[in-house]
Design brief:
CATH architecture: Distorted Sandwich
GO molecular function: kinase activity
Number of helices: 4
Structural class: mainly beta
Strand order of the largest sheet: 9-5-6-7-11-3-2-13
Subcellular location: Cell membrane; Cytoplasm
Helix content: 10-25%
CATH class: Mainly Beta
CATH superfamily: Glucose Permease (Domain IIA)
Strand content: 35-45%
Number of domains: 1
CATH topology: Glucose Permease (Domain IIA)
Keywords: Kinase, Phosphotransferase system, Sugar transport, Transferase, Transport
Radius of gyration: 15 Å
Distance between the termini: 25 Å
Protein name: Trehalose PTS II ABC
Largest sheet: 8 strands, antiparallel
GO cellular component, one term: plasma membrane
């Protein structure tokens, strides 16, 4: 308790949060080969049941794609996290997305950050899976544990710890 009061110990949030209501699956099972191959880093996919997107981690927003389909975060532990909404949705030029954060914003895990119009994505014939990857896996990730299955947006579904 005193450590928190006097600031001697900063608690870092290493949790991974469900970015949307839906069903979490292994990254190797997502339809996008760039992500499923692991080349972008370790992570997971989640098939959304609605389009309300929340921050998958606590940290700082580092990137919002011009086409609004992807956002980047840096966790306090140094891990770099990408959330990618849908497969090939870059081609939709931002239309299905509303982004509520900007670079340098601090976010907490589970904080509302965006919406995705699932019907627009489906009408375009695209997969609406939301993909979360740790892009600096090779250099910085020690362990990533994520619980597959049905989750609510903002649920703590795992942890991502950085190499010390």
């Amino acid at each position: 308790m005193f450590k928190k009061l006097f600031g001697h110990h900063k608690e870092t949030d290493d949790h991974i949060y469900a970015p949307v209501n839906g069903t979490v699956e292994a990254l190797k099972d997502v339809s996008d080969p760039v992500f499923s191959s692991g080349v972008m880093g370790e992570g997971f996919g989640i098939h959304p049941s609605d389009g309300n997107i929340v921050a998958p981690v606590a940290g700082t927003v580092t990137m919002v794609a011009n086409t609004k389909h992807a956002l980047g975060f840096t966790m306090d532990n140094g891990l770099e996290v990408l959330i990618h909404m849908g497969v090939d949705t870059v081609d939709l030029k931002g239309k299905p997305f509303t982004i509520n954060v900007k670079p340098q914003d601090k976010v907490t895990g589970g904080q509302a950050i965006a919406t995705m119009d699932l019907q627009q994505v489906k009408d375009a014939g695209l997969d609406d899976v939301v993909i979360v990857v740790i892009t600096n896996t090779k250099d910085s990730l020690d362990t990533l544990n994520v619980e597959n299955g049905a989750h609510q947006a903002g649920d703590q579904i795992g942890t991502a710890t950085a190499k010390s």
